[in-house]
User: Which sequence fits this backbone?
DNA sequence: TTTTAATATGCAATCGATTGCTCAAAATAT
DNA sequence: ATATTTTGAGCAATCGATTGCATATTAAAA
């Protein structure tokens, strides 16, 4: 069990040259002759040399690590985005450190700190639900480290951002529900300080108005949008005898809970109540009936997020090219919201 | 936009002491007086000093990074295990680098290599489905770097491992199906070189035998166990007119596909066909009927995996304490497999 | 043949933190 | 008052790779 790893000095020793030459040979520096390069490569392979990225990072100041912060990797949307980021990053010889904030502000702050100490070359993040203050991200910018936000963004920061047009997605969905006969549509939403919920709600309201329907505040319910929240809220609405014939949720999880409760209470979906969620989580296609939802274009989002990141990374810090990319989401119509079923 | 980060030398300069002293002060070394320590701490805070882990890693040879390789983070089981690992790791001041192999052998090999180059202090992994050769993991061991495997393990390696008792889980499930009247149970399985599928199949066969039923090779179907595989296989079985009254799948995804096809073909579940999956993915409780499945105890598994890892890390490399932990999974009985529905 | 220009490599400093060894000053013991 | 400890810090090397600035050798030009 030999623990010692080969270094460029070991190679140098064997060939009776200096470490500098070895280093240059390995980096394909034109100042080194092909003959030497070949010899170096050969010995490197022979003694199983593996570069020490730590040493290189210290010297160059570049760790080739990117910190990625998501609320939770356990969601189709986030893991797809991560995959998109990872693909581009890996092809450019970067590794990503995935960290989860679990939607907890404190954890997010600590994570940012830890990533900075690990000397990541940049950070890509989607903000936690409970985050109301972004000083920790400001610190990142102050250090001149590239930062790109996606999906859960904030306007308090001058950074590159990638989002979908949440207003559009919600508008399309609600318009679709109305076209299918809904007149009293309940809306599940969450903390309005979070851009995505705010925008989706605006889309909901605008669609109602444009179709000559009234916005009834009693139909707009705030929660954490988990499955249990959907269940609880749906039951409360049913119990309160409020009149409704549709539900549009900002999350697939809470609409799932609502669907369960609706069925438990004998409501026919979509005959009596039409419903739609947001996020296109895979399970929405497994339910009975399958649930209409909005696809967030996670793959392109990951790709574009990574592209924006590397653009920033390669830019001369002076011309900080903070730009906002907005993708169009896609309404996925399934049985839960249509008449002809 | 100042990019320069403070170092211990900056602190030393301000206080007219040496960097060594600062370093010791920050590490609370007893050889430094309290007065000096206080001054150092004060200046450190004042100039917003943040330790450079890279430099420290180079010198100490410890990066305080743990590489975690999973087939995909986009699965409830894996993300739960990751969470368990992360919690313990963070509390000990370690960060984890999560990498996904996407169940691809080549990617796994590259990932291991990349993690080694990043000089992680150890690796925790669940092996990719397509991996048939574990030389890349052997290399990890040869370097004396702690390696712990969970769930998808291999016997070709002398390392600490954490698994559930797959045989037990499968046995319980199949026994349950039989007790509920099934006599011809189809089994969806995958590559038998992967321990979990092999064990689950053994459990399936043993349960049949112990109940006086025959093992019919025609009922054992190999695939990748994705949803589409489940759909395809189920349709093929139906088309082939093979007699069956139950399906036990080694994966929740393929049983989901099977359920869809069964319903599309007019089969009543569970009245005519009883089904059960494995994994307790959240969506199994959302389906109609909800699907009986096996919970893999992901939270304890993550915790125990991390514990085993740190045990190895702290052990004197001589007494390598490779140990295997086996957790009991839990059968979650739902409507898809019971009579009284 | 001498000068100039390429070409190939070496030297030594550097990145920031850590640590074994040395040493001066202060405290205690004889 | 001298000898011995104890305490607090400094010096310099180290981790492994990189790089600006020589330098030696060879080739081409004058």
Assistant:
């Amino acid at each position: 069990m030999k623990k010692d790893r080969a270094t460029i000095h070991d190679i140098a020793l064997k060939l009776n040259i200096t470490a500098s030459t070895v280093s240059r040979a390995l980096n394909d520096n034109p100042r080194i002759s092909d003959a030497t390069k070949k010899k170096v490569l050969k010995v490197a392979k022979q003694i199983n040399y593996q570069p020490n990225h730590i040493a290189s990072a210290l010297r160059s100041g570049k760790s080739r690590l990117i910190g990625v912060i998501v609320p939770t990797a356990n969601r189709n949307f986030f893991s797809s985005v991560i995959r998109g980021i990872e693909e581009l990053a890996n092809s450019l010889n970067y590794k990503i450190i995935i960290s989860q904030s679990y939607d907890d502000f404190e954890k997010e702050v600590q994570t940012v700190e830890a990533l900075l100490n690990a000397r990541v070359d940049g950070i890509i993040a989607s903000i936690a639900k409970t985050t109301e203050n972004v000083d920790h991200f400001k610190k990142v910018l102050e250090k001149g480290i590239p930062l790109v936000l996606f999906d859960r963004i904030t306007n308090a920061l001058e950074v590159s951002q990638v989002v979908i047009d949440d207003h559009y997605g919600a508008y399309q969905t609600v318009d679709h529900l109305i076209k299918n006969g809904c007149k009293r549509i309940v809306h599940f939403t969450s903390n309005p300080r979070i851009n995505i919920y705010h925008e989706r709600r605006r889309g909901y309201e605008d669609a109602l108005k444009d179709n000559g329907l009234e916005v009834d505040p009693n139909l707009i319910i705030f929660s954490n949008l988990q499955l249990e929240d959907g269940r609880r809220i749906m039951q409360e609405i049913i119990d309160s005898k409020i009149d409704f014939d549709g539900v549009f949720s900002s999350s697939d999880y809470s609409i799932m809970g609502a669907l369960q409760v609706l069925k438990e209470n004998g409501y026919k979906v979509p005959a009596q109540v039409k419903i739609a969620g947001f996020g296109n989580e895979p399970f929405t296609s497994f339910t009975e009936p399958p649930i209409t939802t909005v696809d967030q274009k996670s793959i392109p989002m990951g790709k574009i997020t990574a592209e924006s990141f590397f653009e920033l990374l390669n830019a001369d810090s002076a011309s900080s090219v903070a730009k906002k990319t907005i993708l169009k989401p896609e309404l996925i119509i399934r049985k839960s919201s249509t008449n002809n079923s």
User: Anything to note?
Assistant: Residues 7-9, 19-20, 22-24, 26-27, 51-60 of chain A lie near DNA strand D (CB under 10 Å from a C1'). Chain A touches chain B through 51 residues (CB under 8 Å). The domain at 166-296+332-337 of chain A is CATH 3.40.50.2300 (Rossmann fold).
